[in-house]
Input
Amino acid sequence: MTASAALGPRSTSRVVFVVILAVIAIAFLVVGIIYCVEPSGSLPVWLGRETVMVGKQQLPSPAYRPLRAVGSLITGVVFAIGSGFSLAYRTKAAMGTATEVAQLS
Output
């Protein structure tokens, strides 16, 4: 009997929670990368393209762009770490079963 068979299947709610955290992490990481790669004038409107009136011209505003990029990247990393910890978490009962299986081998 293997250790993975003794631990039993993971709960469905935990897997759903891990997938949701991973999707949120990927979304924040992608937004952070877009903020870092794209010039201010070509950002999508849904990312908050802001313009400033200089003379008679509308120019893209770099106001909060670096802050938003760093914030998005940090949030993405935090959600990714949370997803990893949620996937690796084992209850005390499951840990006891794993040690019993290891002692039987």
Q: What stands out?
A: The two ends are 8 Å apart (CA to CA). The chain has one domain: 9-104. Strands lie at 51-54, 57-60.
